[in-house]
Design brief:
The protein is an alpha+beta fold. Among the domains are: 1-45, no CATH class; 213-219 and 273-361, TATA-Binding Protein (2-Layer Sandwich); 368-650, Ribonuclease H-like superfamily/Ribonuclease H (Nucleotidyltransferase, domain 5), CATH 3.30.420.10. Helices cover 33% and strands 20% of the residues. The protein has 18 helices and 24 strands. Strands 3, 4, 5, 6, 8 and 9 form a six-stranded mixed beta sheet that branches. Strands 10-11-12-13-7-14 form a six-stranded antiparallel beta sheet, with helices on both faces. A five-stranded antiparallel beta sheet has the order 15-16-17-18-24. Helix 7 packs across helix 15 (537-564) and helix 15 (537-564) runs parallel beside helix 17 (596-608). It is globular, with a radius of gyration of 29 Å. The N and C termini lie far apart (84 Å). 37% of the residues are buried.
């Protein structure tokens, strides 16, 4: 006998087994579940392809199409932009699975062992009598780590094959006093380090001949103590109570909803937790002899003159990265003050995969987000119902002038509701490891409000390019013993009015750190629309150089000056000779008719580049201008050469050999 009125029918014994725990389900049951899901997705996609009554007639107007309800297909497919950990909803079958509940209880046991709350609770009515008491609810968060490594819907996978991550956090957005009124704590979160600082730390360490090492701080926030002026009580759900907590309630003869637990440590979620952890970390590092680097977030330096060793430490919340000559000698004393894991050579940080290889007298370094990008492509295909092409050679799709007035192309796009998630997820991978995607994402992100069919096509072109080049990794090389010759080299560029959607030009560029042996490593790349419309190439290039200098060159130079304890030379390579001539002359009364921001840029840049022994501007031929990739869409062969100039190469290839001064006048 079979059950089910639809086309998918299964024996009764199979249907009954649907409700068993996953570990007890038969192979037939799991196959049936996957079949049901596949057919459901097929039906949804087929329904999307069928024309509606209002659009079946060729004479239907755009106004009638605009009045139709948007498709609900986007709501059925969850999109997780960063894919660091995929959250699990309480309604999911995975939430009640044994591995998931074990992860939550393990987190509670860890917090209890840290002394995050008093062992014995008090009655809620007694807690409300305490002056200035604040109350907060603790609630669980559950996620699956490295979910991008799994194929298919997570709900239909065996929970025993998944890596669950449980978190218990405080509802810091709903603090209340004894009367139930809302309490507001100032949100004074700390500012962590950034990827540019991490890459500079890597360069500095490799130039000293050592691969940097990383460590994770265990339960970072709760290593600090909550200041006594904060009297905070937590309401804890019954499912989160550990055995010891249940035993305490039995002794008191109370239920979980009758008691409150005094919070002793800054649990994640409280508005002040980030600041308290940052202050605790800073106090521990100062006690251990570390000195903070001025103007650089969460970055410290330590120097032992007797042993002749130095180290740089940069921290992103609970991720600690240390590099430099002999830096391993500083870990033991640090770990006595901060509870962290055994340091290991850097392999992954913020989702970025690193690999180091020693070749002769240099280190070759590569980093990528291949798994993340594959997940982005897969989710785009699920959301759009389209298969990407793997024969695309560039991310930008070229249109004729007539395309921008074509009614079909300018109608509302079907991906309008999902465009933000699709592009912002991809932007994370682009900023971390794929600078060749930045320009296309920048152009499309300006169209979120007025998303059209043309944008759909451009987005499909972009994702097809990602699928075709998913194996590209960013490569670099730093010579051992070259710390005395490291220099900053930047490539600012601009595209005058190249975006048909706007009259404003595009600012783009990249920054490398190079050594005297011909090695180089990409530190940062950027692509953004300029804040105002430029009327000449020189004006747009000048705006781009001002952004590059103020936001990238000067901060990078200042960091290396302090770390290397010398003046680091910075070279800015510009392919527009007019800009170089303007900066050489500086501001004069003859330029008084220029816009205010342009006059200020000329004056500021002329002063910054007045000493050629510190930083200088030189001309570079256009074919060596690496910033081109971040300002405009390039045709296939030109795009391929631009990838080589940037060091974006397949995994199997060696670092591209280039002459750091080729084409420079």
């Amino acid at each position: 006998m079979a059950v089910g009125s639809g086309p998918a029918k299964f024996p009764v014994e199979v249907v009954n087994d649907f409700f068993l725990p996953p570990s007890q389900q038969s192979v037939a049951v799991r196959a049936a579940l996957l079949t049901c899901h596949a057919r459901a997705v097929e039906e949804l996609l087929e329904s999307k392809k069928k024309p509606t009554s209002s659009s079946s007639s060729p004479s239907s107007t755009s106004s009638s199409a605009a009045n139709q309800h948007r498709s609900r297909l986007a709501e059925t497919i969850p999109l997780n932009p960063l894919m660091v950990t995929t959250p699990i909803n309480r309604k999911s079958r995975l939430w009640k699975s044994k591995p998931a509940q074990a992860a939550l209880l393990a987190e509670m046991a860890k917090l209890q062992a840290r002394g995050c709350w008093e062992a014995v609770p008090i009655r809620r009515r007694d807690a409300r009598r305490i002056p200035n008491a604040t109350f907060v609810r603790l609630f669980p968060l559950l996620g699956i780590k490295e979910s991008e490594r799994h194929n298919g819907p997570l709900d239909f996978l065996d929970p025993n094959d998944l890596h669950f991550k449980g978190r218990v956090v405080a509802g810091g957005n709903a603090l209340s006093d004894s009367q139930g009124a809302t309490v507001t704590w100032a949100d004074t979160s700390s500012l962590p380090t950034n990827m540019e600082t991490i890459k500079l730390t890597i360069v500095q360490s490799l130039s000293d001949g050592e691969v940097p090492t990383a460590s994770d701080a265990h339960s970072a926030y709760v290593q600090a103590e909550l200041p006594p002026q904060y009297v905070c009580f937590a309401f804890i759900e019954e499912e989160l109570l550990t055995e010891d907590m249940v035993l305490q309630l039995k002794k008191l003869g109370l239920n979980h909803d009758e008691v409150a637990w005094r919070v002793l440590r800054p649990i994640y979620g409280l508005p002040i937790s980030g600041t308290i952890w940052s202050r605790h970390l800073r106090a521990c590092l100062l006690k251990d002899g570390w000195s903070p680097l001025e103007g650089v977030a969460e970055t410290y330096m330590k120097f032992d003159k007797v042993k002749g060793i130095r180290a740089v430490l940069t921290v992103y919340v609970d991720d600690l990265l240390m590099g430099g000559k002999g830096h391993q000698a500083f870990w033991p004393s640090l770990r006595k003050l901060i509870d962290c894991s055994e340091p290991e050579p850097l392999s992954r940080i913020l989702g970025l995969e690193f690999a180091f290889q020693k070749v002769a007298n240099s280190y070759e370094v590569s980093y990528n987000m291949v798994d993340f990008l594959q997940t982005c492509v897969r989710r785009y295909e699920e959301a759009s119902g389209l298969k990407v092409s793997t024969r695309v050679t560039c991310p930008a799709k070229v249109y004729s002038v007539d395309a921008f007035v074509d009614e079909r192309l300018q109608a509302k796009g079907r991906l309008a509701a999902q465009a933000t998630s699709l592009l912002m997820g991809l932007l994370y991978g682009a900023r971390m490891a794929r600078c060749d995607l930045l320009h296309s994402i920048s152009v499309l992100s300006s169209r979120f409000v007025n998303w059209t069919v043309q944008c759909d096509e451009m987005c499909h072109q972009l994702y097809s390019y990602v699928a075709a080049t998913v194996d590209l990794v960013q490569k670099g090389r730093i010579g051992i013993g070259t710390s005395d010759s490291l220099r900053v080299v930047a490539y600012p560029d601009a595209d005058l009015g190249g975006d048909a959607f706007s009259s404003r030009s595009t600012t783009g560029g990249c920054l490398f750190v190079e050594d005297q042996q011909g090695g180089a490593m990409l530190i940062s790349a950027w692509s953004k629309r300029q804040p105002s419309s430029a009327t000449s190439t020189a004006e747009s290039e000048l705006t781009s150089m001002a952004y590059c200098t103020k936001m990238h060159v000067v901060p990078t130079q200042s960091f290396l000056d302090e770390v290397l304890m010398r003046t680091v030379y910075a070279l800015v390579l510009e392919d527009n000779t007019s800009v170089i001539a303007i900066l050489a002359c500086g501001y004069s009364l003859a330029l008084r008719c220029l816009a205010k921001h342009t006059r200020l840029n000329i004056g500021a840049l002329s002063e910054l580049y007045s000493d050629p022994t510190v930083r200088a501007v030189r001309h570079v031929v256009s074919r060596q201008q690496r910033g081109d990739l971040m300002t405009k869409g390039l045709p296939g062969p030109t795009h391929g050469r631009a990838l080589q100039l940037m060091g974006l190469l397949p995994k199997s290839s060696r670092f591209f050999e280039f002459d750091a001064v080729e084409g420079i006048a």
